[in-house]
């Protein structure tokens, strides 16, 4: 799964309505340009594509009072909301691709779910890890060490270490959530992770892009 669709839908959804530069600014504030493919061109392309697909509504707005160009503001449709939650749930469960950008994006929106559902999805992730690990040890014996396959064994050794750490980390997250950490859906005011229109972004790249004024 490409993390960019989840990130863009999530950013627009948090604002209610947002123009492209606001979405870019939020994603740079989250550091997504460092750990995912959320670069300006990809963000603006995703906005336009998802508008064509009916996941977003594109609203044409008037020029700013400061004389700037008119912008397009985007709003998530019912279909877009359904896609957002599908991608979110998939990223929390799926261990197979082992792409950290998808999980990282999902963690940023995990509190949009019910607490119980978030825990259930993370437990499914652990099941997937355990199943994948079992498939590796069918032909690789960790007790014999990586040398049994020469230096190639280090690949399988790395796979197992990653699965073991992933399980340990996920169990820790589940424990924190079950102990009451964070405000999940329906539990009160959530943590606000987006910038206001007048807030300065200390993490902005400052690199202009043709889509910034659209």
Reading the helices and strands in chain order gives HEHHHEEHHHEH
**Low-pLDDT residue intervals, each spanning 5 or more residues:** none
Large-scale geometry: elongated
List the total number of helices: 8
Helix share bin = 40-55%
Main β-sheet, spatial strand arrangement: 1-3-2
Radius of gyration: 20 Å
Provide the β-strand percentage band: 5-15%
Total strand segments: 4
Helices and strands: which structural class? mainly alpha
Provide the residue-averaged pLDDT.
86
Distance between the termini: 27 Å
Q: Could you characterize the architecture of this molecule?
A:
There is one protein chain. By secondary structure, this protein is mainly α. 54% of the residues lie in helices and 7% in strands. It is built from 8 helices and 4 strands. The chain has helices at residues 3-15, 20-29, 32-35, 40-52, 78-93, 100-109, 115-137, 153-178, and strands spanning 18-19, 56-60, 72-76, 148-151. It has a 3-stranded antiparallel beta sheet with strand order 1-3-2. The model has no long low-confidence stretch (mean pLDDT 86).
Structure summarized in a few sentences:
Helices cover 54% and strands 7% of the residues.
Task: Pick out its properties.
three-stranded antiparallel beta sheet; 8 helices; mainly alpha; single chain
In terms of topology, how is this protein built?
Blueprint: H1 3-15, E1 18-19, H2 20-29, H3 32-35, H4 40-52, E2 56-60, E3 72-76, H5 78-93, H6 100-109, H7 115-137, E4 148-151, H8 153-178
Antiparallel strand pairs: 1-3, 2-3
Helix pairs in contact: 1-4, 1-5, 1-6, 5-6, 7-8
């Amino acid at each position: 799964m490409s993390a960019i669709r989840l990130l863009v839908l999530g950013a627009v959804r948090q604002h209610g309505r947002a123009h492209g530069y606001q979405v870019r600014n939020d994603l740079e504030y989250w550091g997504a340009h460092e750990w995912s493919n959320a670069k300006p061109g990809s963000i603006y392309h995703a906005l336009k594509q998802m508008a064509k697909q009916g996941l977003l509504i594109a609203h044409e707005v008037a020029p700013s009072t400061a004389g700037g160009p008119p912008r397009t503001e985007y709003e998530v449709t019912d279909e877009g909301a359904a896609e957002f939650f599908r991608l979110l749930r998939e990223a929390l469960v799926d261990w197979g691709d082992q792409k950290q950008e998808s999980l990282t994006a999902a963690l940023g929106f995990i509190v949009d779910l019910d607490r119980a559902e978030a825990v259930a999805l993370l437990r499914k992730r652990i099941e997937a890890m355990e199943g994948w690990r079992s498939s590796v040890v069918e032909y690789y014996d960790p007790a014999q060490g990586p040398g049994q396959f020469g230096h190639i064994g280090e690949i399988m050794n790395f796979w197992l270490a990653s699965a073991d750490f992933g399980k340990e980390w996920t169990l820790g997250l589940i424990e924190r959530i079950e102990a009451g950490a964070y405000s999940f859906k329906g539990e009160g005011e959530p943590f606000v992770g987006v910038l206001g229109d007048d807030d300065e972004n200390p993490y902005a790249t400052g690199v202009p892009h043709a889509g910034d004024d659209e």
